[in-house]
Structure to design on (139 residues):
């Protein structure tokens, strides 16, 4: 059987700072005798409303985004895109010809990425000189 897929939220509740008395007060108002519901989604929505009203969430700290690989370029993007296309074609129509095309593109993609890594390392090594800080080199 399939489970009901809920709309999962990315927020996390800070249960240590929850105002439980307010939560229970609001829950009595929402779940009184006259407000009895058998709908699961309605129940979950009400619980989420109660939580939003009385339980704070953890504040999200801004994350530093990584700059990505210095050697990654448009050729790598295109090769990976073509590989994904070939894989989709193979998955939708699995036959020997499509498998061979996917494997060929996979090999081309791996070769392209390896070459770009090598070129990136070579250009980085050429950029080093006596004035380059050691911290930068180790990083």
């Amino acid at each position: 059987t399939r489970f009901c897929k809920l709309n999962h939220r990315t927020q996390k509740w800070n249960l240590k700072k929850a105002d439980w008395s307010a939560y229970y007060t609001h829950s009595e108002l929402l779940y009184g005798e006259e407000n009895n519901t058998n709908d699961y989604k309605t129940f979950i929505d009400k619980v989420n409303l109660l939580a939003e009203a009385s339980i704070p969430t953890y504040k999200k700290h801004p994350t530093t985004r990584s700059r990505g690989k210095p050697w990654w370029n448009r050729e790598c993007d295109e090769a990976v895109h073509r590989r994904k296309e070939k894989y989709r074609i193979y998955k939708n129509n699995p036959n020997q010809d499509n498998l061979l095309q996917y494997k060929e593109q996979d090999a081309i993609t791996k070769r392209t990425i390896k070459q770009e890594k090598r070129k990136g390392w070579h250009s980085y090594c050429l950029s080093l000189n006596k004035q380059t800080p050691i911290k930068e080199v180790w990083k």
Observations:
- The longest helix spans residues 96-127.
- The radius of gyration is 27 Å.
- The chain is about 60% helix and 0% strand.
- Residues 1-7 have pLDDT under 50 and may be disordered.
